From TrEMBL:
The keyword Signal does not apply. It is found in: Cytoplasm. This is Glucose-6-phosphate isomerase. Belongs to the GPI family. GO terms for biological process: gluconeogenesis; glucose 6-phosphate metabolic process; glycolytic process. It catalyses: alpha-D-glucose 6-phosphate = beta-D-fructose 6-phosphate. GO terms for cellular component: cytosol. CDD domains: SIS_PGI_1, SIS_PGI_2. It comes from Cellulomonas flavigena (strain ATCC 482 / DSM 20109 / BCRC 11376 / JCM 18109 / NBRC 3775 / NCIMB 8073 / NRS 134). The active site is at E369 (proton donor), H400, K524.
Amino acid sequence: MPTPPIDPTTTSAWQALTQHETALSPDLRAWFAADPDRATRLTLPLADLTVDLSKNLVTDETIALLARLADEVHLAERYEAMLAGERINVTEDRAVLHTALRRPADVEPPLVVDGQQVDDDVQAVLAEVFAFAEKVRAGEWTGVTGEAVRTVVNIGIGGSDLGPVMVYEALEPYVADDLEVRFVSNIDPTDLAQKTKGLDPTTTLFIVASKTFTTLETLTNARLARQWLWDSLAAAGHLEDTDEARREAVAKHFVAVSTALDKVADFGIDPANAFGFWDWVGGRYSVDSAIGTSLAIAVGPDAFGDLLAGFHAVDEHTRTTPVERNVPFLMGLLNVWYTNFLGAHTHAVLPYAQQLHRFPAYLQQLTMESNGKSVRWDGTPVTTQTGEVFWGEPGTNGQHAFYQLIHQGTRLIPADFIAVANPAYPLRDGDTDVHALFLANFFAQTKALAFGKTADEVRAEGTPEHIVPARVFPGNRPTTSVLAPALTPSVVGQLIALYEHITFAQGIVWGIDSFDQWGVELGKKLALEITPAVTGDAQALAAQDPSTRGLIERYLELRD
């Protein structure tokens, strides 16, 4: 049986935090005025990142109590247990070793789990992925006509899609000029149709990413892609109407990321062109595994290696830094503070970097699939609220959409602002540095959220009295600012690992298993059971509840 989680509400730190919150009257204006060193003291380094926590609704006492809570729930010890390969994913009886994916090849001591040399396994697969990526980038991997690959289509879903597409967009300036990667995930046939539109089948390579090679959406899209390939090659006169020719086409235009080599072979993919990973890699933690093959092709092994180094730098910071200065742990504990003591329900992530426009979507899976749980890792009910709804859009787009609610609404919405000092495209509008103009908004928004605008300040501007209330900004809206020198591969890895460990810290406090995802299973199972009803089976239709039956009947009427 797993070690029972510690109920955080029974700890002395939780009781002290409860009393502290009752007595606390957040006033960021007054706090900053009374404490000139507040910003310096609460701005922390994390590898290449500068993280300013000073505009959060915390005092030194709050931080000390949160650190005490971390100690009382054994946060650091649980992190060490994860790094060592203990089976902390208890409902699936698995180790959780995504951190092993980015350990340097020569790190000591070696990681051995259940007698297996994990470092050797990881480096062997990474070498295979890198060798394949180099062949594609050099034009040595060719299709049925001898043409080099120009477009890679990654077929996956969940972590097999969200991670690769997010990092691909973030590292777009690093992508080889003669390569493009497209990503197919949705089982809606529109997705596959749009992503293959305009492609030359002779220069297209498909990567099918599915650990078990049984994922419904991924395998359906893979079969659709295979048919598209056959039809397109035949239409262009490059494919004979024989099974052998079709098998050869698949072998040259498809590879897999999977460990189910028999199923890979049945599909027509040469098992030698299948790159594996392990059951201790969860999908939402897998972008730095072979799931990132499309990225290794796009940006090259060197850049992918830098991405891994960025991950590892944050892993090491988290392992070696006391909780009072440990950025991922502190940010996770702050989320606990807002969720469990100040009543926040959502958390905004607002990247002031267009290349990170998919980062909030990536974090939705990472955080909400991990911590959207109502039972603890021993099967008992949770004793607190868990999880937040993560959401966001890149600035300044969000400013013209939902910032109104954050600034003047009635809900507390903690927000993380992320920016880079040096843009990939340093454009100018006449004499104006557009990136400087852009980041002026980044700085202004956190200032406005923190300090607001009083009624007297509004009046001093000559505002008519009846308009004054509408123009008051209450302030005391908490934000964390993360500033990076540039959006390099290493920085992208650092940002991902930061939020991985934020998520971990919250899960440990709440006593939940952040590494399973049973909540996604029921809907998938029911979809398989309902499919016959949707495709005309009257008996299956009659077995549905009245609402579902009515909806299916109306769908069938409309489809006809």
